[in-house]
Design a protein that fits this description.
14% helix, 5-stranded antiparallel β-sheet, mainly beta
Length: 161
């Protein structure tokens, strides 16, 4: 898709339609990366998939982890204890996580436990697959039934030039 847009831009520029080519470049810039600014947990299933309670207290103690494809941890959010439904949405401000558009990133939600943390959800995302030519500032992570469980806010970084 980028190649065909680049060819269209080149054709318009060489055919005397430079103004239109510039407008296309401005409307659909080329992004090379994105800074992850926030992850917000919108909801959580009231119980584990098997029907059991998340914790002895009943409510989950969620936290978010962002990992690179190779498993390197890029960010770990603080645990929110006893997150009953009335406390949602739960936002985590993220700093220092820049991801290339062709890189694969995992957004993971866990329930903090004493022995072993429960995996609530894992999302594999390649930023170049998010949106179309016009990149959204926020994109959803869908849970069971296709309902948004979380959302990620990013700041897109344009290619120089």
């Amino acid at each position: 898709m980028r190649l065909s847009l680049a060819l269209l831009t080149l054709a318009l520029a060489t055919s005397g339609c430079a103004g239109l080519a510039e407008a296309l470049d401005e409307a659909f810039p080329t992004y090379i990366a994105a800074d992850v600014e926030a992850v917000t947990l919108l909801s959580l299933p009231p119980s584990k998939p098997g029907g059991g309670a998340w914790d002895l207290s009943g409510a989950a103690d969620p936290f978010v982890v962002i990992r690179a494809e190779d498993g390197a941890v890029l960010y770990t959010g603080q645990v929110v204890e006893n997150a009953v439904p009335s406390r949602y949405p739960l936002p985590w401000a993220v700093t220092g996580v820049r991801v290339g558009t062709d890189d694969v990133v995992w957004f993971e939600v866990y329930d903090d436990d004493v022995a072993e943390d429960d995996v609530v959800a894992r999302y594999r995302v390649r930023l170049s697959d998010v949106g179309g030519l016009a990149k959204p500032a926020t994109f959803p992570l869908l849970g069971p039934g296709g309902q948004p469980m979380a959302e990620v806010r990013v700041r897109w970084i344009e290619a120089a030039g």
